[in-house]
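Sharing in case it's useful to others searching the archive later.

Someone asked me privately for the predicted structure of NADP-dependent oxidoreductase domain-containing protein, so I'm posting the question and my answer publicly. Question first, with the sequence:
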Amino acid sequence: MESETMNYKYLGNSGLKVSVLGFGNMTSGWAEGTEQWNFECMNKCVRGGINFFNTAEVYGMGSAETILGNNLKQGGWDRDDLIISTNLIPTKVIGIQGLSRKRLRQAINHSLQRLQLDYIDVLYLHRFDYEVPLEETIRIINDLIDDDKAFYWGTSEFTPQQLSECHRICEKHGWIPPIVEQAQYHMFEREKIERDYVPIFREYGMGTTVWSPLAGGLLSGKYNDGKIVPGRAESGLAAAVYKQKFDNYIGNRKEDAVRTLKGLQSLAEELGCTQSQLVLAWVIKNPDVTTAILGASSPGQLDENLAAVEVVKKITPEVLARIEDLLGNRPNPSMNWRTFTPNPPRR
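And my answer, the predicted structure tokens:
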């Protein structure tokens, strides 16, 4: 059921309508004792009008899907009102390696068991598989849709060339094409959504469910002093990924990054919102973004982030221009050689 406080868009050129903010439970899959707070997060999301929920078999080696399935049962929400998606990854995580016919048949059955569902609304290929013929993968995806185990499918972090090949294969065989690409997009990571994918969006009408809109929290305001949060980068794979992301976006360009972050904070205060709300509003303001997937380490974080929907109204052309001045990283558009006029030689 749609909420008056939430905005909704059609996912690509499909008839599937999703909230502009979604919820992903990657964090809950990697820690013990997270099922209850994940339920509290989902409950807040549903009350706030979010209908799109994303997970993946790789999150917690399947535990995130299990948690989501238990939470769906606990909440007792109308299944028809919710859009549930999961990602199948081309590596030996749970089952046989790759996105082969055998692997995908097994993988979706296992995912549905963990989720305690009869079907998935959107099934993602979680990265491209360079070893399995793409035609084999797309054929089995269409078979799964014919079997009502999935209704739509999409990709995650595919290149424009790979996406074009997906559509070419589907057109050749009369198969159902992907309707959505799931890519990283935030103020520090803009090239794919704002430049590389634009021809794909225009030609095929694909939607997007972008992940990490707050850059893993780096744009939330907690890092405006340019320092890493104590305890986040001590040990383990997750800590190593976090440290690398911090270094890429802040640590290796600390002076410029701090200037940008503090500028965003000042602009947010001027607009009467938080920095997180401003950053999220900027993401979903982009017409090529269908849904921005939120993560949370506690239910309290969602109260602030859900209000970003209202802040979108404050993102005027003037505000956008000021944000561009702060970021200084707007991607250059691809050259249109039909309209290119070289400078005439000087005499």
